[in-house]
């Protein structure tokens, strides 16, 4: 349980820091993601399979239910087939909800985190992620309003 608490505490301090007019502390973000219960950035040389994901303006990922093995490194090949920007962010549900709240507070916030891919309409891109031991991992589009409209999915991690 403790490993969940530490990254969350780190993260809830970020909006307060940003309100002071300072830049997003990138090292704090890195520390959070490297400790995520959802896993860690994957080594492209160790990808065991590629999973294609579509994002569209009905606020859905297709597929939105995925199964992986614990420790598996997956390349997500993501395509935005909509007419507005979308993104795929991997994390625990708690991380995603905290992150979505931070984005509402900072509309201009740029993503460069390794658990995130942001795509303009018609764009495609890859995201390599190594899953850990967690039973389930979530993903969502954190553009304001999208997750709330149902733009999220679940990865089931088998032992
Ligand atoms: Cu979206």
Task: Characterise this structure.
With about 160 residues, the protein is an alpha+beta fold. It has one domain: Immunoglobulin-like (Sandwich), CATH 2.60.40. About 25% of the residues lie in helices and about 35% in strands. It has four helices and ten strands; from the N terminus they run H-H-H-E-E-E-E-E-E-H-E-E-E-E. The strands form two sheets. The protein has a five-stranded mixed beta sheet, with no helix packed on it. A five-stranded mixed beta sheet has the order 4-10-9-6-7, with helices on one face. Strand 2 (about 50-55) and strand 3 form a beta hairpin. Helix 1 packs antiparallel against helix 3 and helix 1 (about 1-10) packs parallel to helix 4. Mean pLDDT is about 80; it is low at about 1-35. The structure holds copper (II) ion. Copper (II) ion (CU) binds near residues 143, 146 and 151. Copper (II) ion (CU) binds near residues 86, 141 and 151.
Provide tags for this entry:
4 helices; alpha+beta; 159 residues; Immunoglobulin-like; 5-stranded mixed beta sheet; 25% helix; binds copper (II) ion
Write the layout of secondary structure elements.
Layout: H1 2-12, H2 14-19, H3 26-34, E1 40-41, E2 49-56, E3 60-62, E4 65-69, E5 73-80, E6 86-91, H4 93-105, E7 116-119, E8 124-130, E9 136-140, E10 152-158
Parallel strand pairs: 2-5, 4-10
Antiparallel strand pairs: 1-8, 2-3, 5-8, 6-7, 6-9, 9-10
Helix pairs in contact: 1-3, 1-4
The chain binds copper (II) ion.
